[in-house]
Design brief:
Elements lengths: L1 H24 L19
């Protein structure tokens, strides 16, 4: 039972480290660009 618990804790720590590394080093910036959408107003 203790070995399984140690394995789960180890996997949780490695998963957290991998997620943190991806968030820090990965390209998570938003794409920037101009968006033009025509709008029709019903002004009576």
């Amino acid at each position: 039972m203790g070995r399984i618990l140690k394995l789960l804790v180890f996997l949780a720590v490695v998963g957290f480290a991998a997620l943190s590394g991806y968030a820090y080093l990965g390209d998570l910036g938003p794409e920037q660009g101009e968006v033009v959408v025509p709008v029709t107003l019903n002004a009576d």
